[in-house]
Amino acid sequence: MERMLAGVLAGVLAGATGAQAEMLRIDWLERQVVPPPVLSNMQAEPATLGLDGARLSLTDIATTGKFTGQDYRLVETVVPPEAAFLPAAKAALADGARVLVVRAPAADLLALADLPEAQGALIFNTEAPDEALRGTDCRANVLHTLPSYAMRTDALAQFIVTKRWTHLAIIEGTLPEDRAYAAALRASLTKFGLSLAAGKTWDFDANMRRAAAAEVPLFTQDLPEHDLLLVADEPGDFARYVAYNTWLPRPLAGSEGAKPVGWAGVVEQNGAAQLQNRFRDLAGRAMTADDYAAWVAVAAIGEAATRTRASDAATLRGYLLSDKARIGGFLGRPLGFRDWDGQLRQPIPIVTERAVVAQAPFEGFLHATNELDTLGPDRPETQCTAFGGAK
């Protein structure tokens, strides 16, 4: 079981015994948002989405801290939709926050990172998948534990190549996140030598619970012959009604069907079942990608603190961006951060509602140093300059 205990206790037990624990403060800073209206009222977002992952991870690293003479405290700040985000962020920084795990939209995250008070802080982005945050809008004080759009769509494109599906079509929604995901999908298909035969925009506003069986076949009837239908529906709104209602009986992938995700409740290999069980005991629900992003952010903090015996943001950041970082993430291989854009490199599971179908990167997609870097922008491709750019 990956608990980050193996390999770290032998060298520190003797020195830690009897020593007073050093406190490392970790701040959870969340900006709640009102989700867009959807066609179904069946999906209610948990009130503590993400935060539950951070809380569980704190108990994990606290267990290690008992042996290493380190203690951790999670300070939670949740900003409701009607309140201003920056005053709350400034208050946390003024109170001593230097290591922050943040769940907030991209605009709020950048506003926080650009605060004079936040220079020298270490900020973990667990919510925003935007490509620009890892590219032209990257910030040196921000690391990302949620996979970018490109990481997920590169994983899906690799999967499609392994299946030898060459005729592809896409349906995309009209929300900004739908368009961003669709754009990433197109870029990934091009990257791996694939192309789209056709695409359509979903602009229905009718009650699909009643009309899907009649409307979806007509909507998809004019699509050309295809092996796979891709769907870009990031809120999970309409894609559920596309399944089994298309004119041609074809599998779905993207936001429905075979989905590339950072984590899901069906991940159970490599000791993940134990993490899933502990999360269910804590939260009473399945662990999502948002929860995992928060969990692994706190796990990374604990790993860095254990290895460096330090609690200051600069030392923790330096370790996490180094080749020494090896974060146990229950995904079959150690995780680490890319030193050119601050993104956590990790395998990407391809999942359905009930099982893991596969996990990227796949055999045959080689890399000079790390096959995980075939997912998302590689060093030569990065547009981020805050970390030093390409080397």
UniProtKB/TrEMBL annotation:
InterPro entries xref list: ABC_transptr_sub-bd_PQQ, Leu-bd, Peripla_BP_I
Family indicated by similarity: Belongs to the leucine-binding protein family.
Leucine-binding protein domain sequence ranges: 51-213
Taxonomic placement: Bacteria, Pseudomonadati, Pseudomonadota, Alphaproteobacteria, Rhodobacterales
Alphabetical keyword list: Signal
One Pfam family of this chain: Peripla_BP_6
Keyword Membrane assigned: no
Gene3D superfamilies: 3.40.50.2300
Top-level division of the source organism's lineage: Bacteria
Protein name stated in the entry: Branched-chain amino acid ABC transporter substrate-binding protein
Organism expressing this protein natively: Paenirhodobacter huangdaonensis
